[in-house]
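ARCHIVE RECORD
Type: protein–small molecule complex
Small molecule: EPS
Source of inputs: curated submission
Record status: active
Notes field left blank by submitter.
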Amino acid sequence: MNTFGKAFRITTFGESHGKAIGVTIDGCPAGVQFDLEEIQNELDRRKPGQSKITTQRKEADSVDVLSGVFEGVTTGTPIGLLIWNQDQRSKDYSHIKDVFRPSHADYTYHAKYGNRDYRGGGRSSARETAARVAGGAVAKQFLNSLGIKFNAYVSEVGDIKVSDDYTTLDFAEVEKNIVRCPDAEKAEAMIELIDQVRKDRDTIGGIVSCVISGVPAGLGEPVFDRLNAELGKAMLSINACKGFEYGSGFAGTKLRGSTHNDAFYADDAGKIRTKTNLSGGIQGGISNGEDIYFRTAFKPVATIMVDQDSIDKDGNEATVSGKGRHDPCVVPRAVPIVEAMSALTIADMVIRAKGNRLDQILDK
Ligand SMILES: Cc1cc2nc3c(=O)[nH]c(=O)nc-3n(C[C@H](O)[C@H](O)[C@H](O)COP(=O)(O)O)c2cc1C
Ligand SMILES: C=C(O[C@@H]1CC(C(=O)O)=C[C@@H](OP(=O)(O)O)[C@H]1O)C(=O)O
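STRUCTURE (tokenized, with ligand):
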């Protein structure tokens, strides 16, 4: 399937070296303010060629609105957004036409379909995530009007990490450095490390953390479509994402219930709150009104510029080395993608809970 979401749905199309990529958004309520500049801003945060620590493919990722918007607001009909590919360099991939890059999607795509658009990884390229970011930017505009905010940031690259306590971090710092880390000193060290790894013709992994604030209590289902499960699927659907944990996550297994439980209290306005938030804002698959926070692990990029053992499609031994322009580390560009997939997940859950009439959603 090329579709994500049940009630607020996106369908993406296009290949990395094809003519264009794009997204159709179905289920967005009518009457949502549509700020094209803000959508472009999100795409600019993701686009390739943005700094010395990303792939050097130069794409403007300038977005065309094809449908679903009139006089600055959504009309409730499918929203079509299109981005033309402009800087494909397909000759960088001629040598892997019949050979599989270790740990990219080449072999598995071939095993499933029996053919593949090997140019730039085709449909398996993270270029597709531009379409998700465009769709996610619309979801964000809808959710911002409900007071829901998304803050993703790079929390680890290699062994360099920021504080685990996100309340001590300054999210305003994130867009001030090219790695998108809220700690300016750690950001410097991360940039230096990624640059060194790049010079070594190698790649490195990292972690993107995310905080979603302003989510009302009551989103999510008690079984299967638990909000945590929907978020997990959204994150694990991003290229190169290897892990997802929310709230106390794996570290929580080391605690006893007596320290892990989030005690309840009523705040001055009578709202039910918890004193701690090891649950990460979700209990029993349903949001409890506290911040939702989670971490996503990204592997080192598969295409490295050194010889590696491989096999060709006929089973013969082969040697393969990457060519062309690749990310030495995906996390700086994964930040807006994590936010986009979060926004799409929450938008879907809001509409599933409250219907898609904006006046009714705002009243409830
Ligand atoms: C923002 C972003 C940029 C990426 N850039 C590259 C890249 O330049 N070269 C590459 O080989 N993989 C890159 N990847 C990862 C591949 O797309 C991914 O490894 C591939 O689709 C195989 O999927 P898997 O790693 O999830 O198994 C990138 C991923 C993301 C999220
Ligand atoms: C083009 C983008 O990133 C690409 C993601 C990618 C991959 O294998 O995922 C491989 C590279 O493709 P190409 O060789 O065509 O430059 C990256 O540049 C993008 O994110 O827009």
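CURATOR ANNOTATION: The chain has one domain: 3-363.
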